[in-house]
Design goal:
Elements (H helix, E strand, L loop, with lengths): L16 H24 L6 H8 L3 H7 L3 H6 L3 H11 L6 H19 L1 H13 L1 H26 L6 H23 L6 H14 L12
Helix pairs in contact: 1-2, 2-3, 5-6, 5-8, 6-7, 6-10, 7-8, 7-9, 8-9, 9-10
Length: 214
């Protein structure tokens, strides 16, 4: 997902020691990466520098993240996206479930890590390698959405309509993040998500609707 994390439910089982250590290492690598990028730029930041700053070996960095771009893009959102969508009422329209979960995600992510949210979307917009990798990784989140949408609507995950809506949403949210970054992050991100969902569900009406929601 583009610029957000989502908090785990309070009732969720707590991870064991091994999982906590792995998460700590992942976060140390990510934090070191963002710090170095802020200081010297994306291109100048190497995996060797990241490893040294995170106090791990380069091989450990690659074990957690296949590429430097993955360090920037990977978050803990996808598994929790699926969980929280399934926790919504079964009779709730899927678009409203998506609206609630996505608004919660972007609001939480920006509140917790505002500088990282801005930096991530800036890199997604300005660095071709990051944007390319992001487009490659869309299929994972798209697959999750297809499963949830199919379950909610009684359709097959492979149906064209299910796939078109799921991947259309992923593409639209990517453009929402780019729009936010291009306007120097001045807009309210949850409101932009609302506008995006409105366009996907109601259609584009042309000049009369320019500006979207207030």
């Amino acid at each position: 997902m583009t610029a957000a994390r989502i908090s785990a439910p309070a009732s969720a089982p707590q991870p064991g020691l091994r999982e906590r250590k792995k998460l700590k290492t992942r976060l140390a690598i990510r934090d070191a990466t963002y710090r170095l990028i802020r200081e010297q730029g994306y291109e100048a930041t190497t995996v060797e520098q990241i490893a040294e700053a995170a106090e791990v070996s380069p091989s450990t960095v690659f074990r957690y993240f296949p590429t430097k771009e993955d360090i920037v893009l990977t978050d803990e959102f996808d598994p929790l996206l699926e969980t929280q969508l399934r926790e919504r009422p079964a009779d709730e329209p899927i678009v409203e479930s998506l609206r609630i979960v996505l608004r919660r995600a972007v609001s939480f992510g920006f509140a917790e890590e505002p500088e990282i949210s801005r930096l991530r979307t800036k890199l997604m917009t300005e660095v071709p390698a990051v944007r390319s990798r992001m487009l490659e990784s869309m299929s994972v989140t798209g697959g999750i959405l297809c499963r949830v949408i199919a379950e909610r609507t009684g359709r097959d995950p492979g149906d064209l309509e299910v796939r078109a809506f799921a991947m259309g949403l992923i593409g639209a949210l990517t453009e929402t993040a780019a729009y936010w970054a291009e306007r120097d992050h001045e807009d309210d991100l949850p409101a932009l998500v609302d506008r995006t969902l409105d366009v996907l569900t109601a259609g584009f009406a042309g000049p009369a609707d320019v500006g979207g929601r207030a």
